[in-house]
From TrEMBL:
Protein name: Metallo-beta-lactamase domain-containing protein
One of the record's GO molecular function terms: 3'-tRNA processing endoribonuclease activity
InterPro entries referenced in this protein's UniProt entry, alphabetically: Metallo-B-lactamas (IPR001279), RibonucZ/Hydroxyglut_hydro (IPR036866)
Pfam families reported for this sequence: Anti-Pycsar_Apyc1 (PF23023)
SMART domains: Lactamase_B
Domain Metallo-beta-lactamase: 17-199
Domain of life: Bacteria
Organism of origin: Candidatus Nealsonbacteria bacterium RIFCSPHIGHO2_01_FULL_38_55
Length: 248
């Protein structure tokens, strides 16, 4: 299993694409979130219209789902006929067709491929094409579900947005945690901090922490200083760039 960091930026970063990862398990390719700028990243990475088997949407904030219409219509335009699964929360599932028609009215009715929407529920295990998926709420301004992926060999978690619950064991003993962090030492507007995430992974015996969704000014002006601050921690910490790969 490997992960391609398609985007690592926060919602309004003009230099970095929205936070999104492509999980390639060898059996399926799963896209984690699809914000405004993600479709461009997908096509830059691969021109294969059938690349994706499934898409996971963590919550209803634009930088996590508003790229879906462009991605889905482009795949249809390129001639996709392969089945596609979208895993999402109940509210998103119920409004999906309305959302698609609002952005590209009538286009979804023309698709030559079927889309199956599966509801993700907190605390429930989902077996999906060789992967075991688990979900847990985070502390965020919108209802967000972090996802845990287990391929039988390795386990990683992706937070979506928001900090983990204080006493959560959802992430415990995982190989990789991709946690969104906004500022260095302050939790703000429903987002975690670098310090908070670092303490959390140490407490939960997580092998590697990937910091994404950093505030645009923090990343632009203090990235070198930030890397120096985190390099001597007990746990391995990375700050990935777009298209960087993580191999288990």
């Amino acid at each position: 299993m490997k992960i391609i960091f398609l985007g690592v930026g926060e919602a309004f970063d003009e230099n970095l694409p929205n936070n999104s990862q492509l999980v390639m398990s060898g059996k399926i390719n799963l896209l984690l979130d699809c914000g405004f700028t993600v479709p461009q990243q997908i096509w830059k990475y691969s021109q294969d219209k059938n690349l994706l088997d499934a898409i996971y949407i963590s919550h209803q904030h634009g930088d996590h789902f508003c790229g879906l219409p462009a991605l889905l219509v482009r795949m249809w335009e390129e001639g996709r006929k392969k089945y596609l699964t979208i895993i999402c929360q109940k509210n998103f599932k119920e409004k999906f067709k309305e959302f698609m028609d609002f952005v590209y009215f009538g286009f979804m009715d023309k698709f030559d491929y079927k889309i199956n929407l599966i509801e993700a529920r907190e605390g429930e295990k989902m077996e999906f094409q060789g992967l075991n998926l688990f979900f847990e709420k985070t502390n965020h301004s919108a209802e967000n579900l972090a996802i845990k992926v287990n391929d039988g060999k390795n386990i990683f978690c992706y937070s979506g947005d928001g900090s983990p619950k204080e006493k959560s064991e959802f992430y415990k003993n995982t190989d990789l945690a991709i946690l969104e962090t906004y500022l260095y030492d302050v939790n703000k507007i429903g987002h975690s901090s670098v310090i908070g995430a670092t303490k959390f992974v140490q407490k939960n015996n997580i092998k590697c922490l990937a910091l994404t969704h950093l505030n645009r000014d923090l990343r632009r002006n203090e990235l070198t200083v930030l890397k120096d601050k985190i390099k001597n921690n007990k746990v391995k910490i990375i700050i990935p760039e777009p298209f960087e790969e993580y191999n288990f």
